Amino acid sequence: MRILYLSRVRLNPYVDLLARGVEEADPEIHTQQHRTLSWARMNLDWRWRILHLHWIELQYNYGSVPHDKAELDLNAFLDKLARIRKQGRKIVYTVHNIDHHEGLHPDLNQRANRWIFQHADAIHVHNRFTAEQAARRYGRTEKVFIIPHGNYIGVYPRQIPRSKARQRLGIPERHFVYLCLGQMRPYKGLEELIAAFLKLDMPDATLLLAGHIANPDYAKKLKRLAGDHPNIRLFPSFVPPEEIQIYCHASDICVLPYRDATTSGAALLAFSFGSPIIAPAIGPFPELLGKNERGMLFHPREHDLETVLAQARELPLAEMGQAARAFAEARDWRTIGAQHARVYRDLLR
């Protein structure tokens, strides 16, 4: 059995890890990966029987694409998916996002979602929240499989200890450090995080923000908000894989102040490094944090992020970190790969 994974995301190793987990769990399954789907690949390569699609929005809206161009690309892509179904091949769709994070071309996003939720042979979601969204918004209730997001244990190095990580970043050893790591985009609520940190006025705390900022205007906005505050450290550039450990090991807790979320690889990354998180009580986060065993939830409507940031300093962080790491360890990719393999085999049975 051959599975074709289709994804334009390369910085996030999610698809690589999934493919490896599937092949380890079921040696009779062979995987291949491509960024885009060509007519030649569809019509000449008959080895693959299942297309497993990720991030459908990036197949027609990759980068800053004008609406007319995005619409043409979506039309062509949906034509290819329809042809695949006529060929007797199966389509599996993993729901990483229901809505485009920046809200670009919402009419096209809605149309793509309607097609894929109606026609995909199987829908894969990472949590109950997304399954409920699929049912409520698109009426999809059958062949919706909840298989959790896997961990990032072993993906990134972990040799640099806390003291050296802080030395590298110029952070005092006695400081309490809040970390927000990853590509900086408006939907992640960084403006609210900076504002809450500034209101607390904690001279012995550091807010560490690290990640690529694609939008120059947004970069200027964050720099203006942070100002020249000595305890806000802004690193607005891509973090190489080997340096992720520096930021994670230098921090006490990770903060994910998202305004919207369907799933969260960032939470699994933090848990893989044994770090608890602060996150909003929306989307996947209540399920990920449990009863505050692996961090703390804040409530965006109550604007209590500031309060939770202050309370985090009194948490049993070592105990929460152990619980976070155990949570991540339970989500190994071989186990997850076996669950996906069963879905694939059921579709072809």
Overview of this protein structure:
This protein is of the alpha/beta class. The protein folds into two domains: about 1-150 and about 330-349, Glycogen Phosphorylase B (Rossmann fold); about 160-330, Rossmann fold (3-Layer(aba) Sandwich), CATH 3.40.50.2000. About 45% of the residues lie in helices and about 15% in strands. The chain is built from 14 helices and twelve strands. It has helices at about 15-25, 40-45, 65-85, 105-120, 130-140, 160-170, 190-200, 215-225, 245-250, 265-270, 285-290, 305-310, 315-330, 335-349; strands at about 1-5, 30-35, 50-55, 90-95, 120-125, 145, 175-180, 205-210, 230-235, 255, 275-280, 295-300. The strands form two sheets. The chain has a six-stranded parallel sheet with strand order 2-1-3-4-5-6, with helices on both faces. Strand 5, helix 5 and strand 6 (about 145) form a beta-alpha-beta unit. Helix 1 packs across helix 14 (about 335-349) and helix 7 crosses helix 12 (about 305-310). The radius of gyration is 21 Å and the shape is globular. About 40% of the residues are buried. The model has no long low-confidence stretch (mean pLDDT about 95).
